[in-house]
Amino acid sequence: MMQILFFIIRQEQVRHWTECESQEEVWFSQLPLSLSPENRKSVQWLQGRHGEVWVWVMGDSPGDKPYAMIVKELMEERARRQAQLELEQHTEEEERQRGEEEIRHAEEKRVKENNVSEDFISSYTFSSSVCVCMCLLNIYKNLFSLPAWVRTPRPSSREMLILWFTEEEKPKQAGYERNGNDIAPWFHGIISRDDSETLLMNAAEGSFLVWVSEMIWSYTLSYRTASIFKHFLINVSRDCYGFLVLDQNRHATLADLIDFH
Question: What region holds the SH2 domain (predicted)?
Answer without folding.
Answer: 186-261
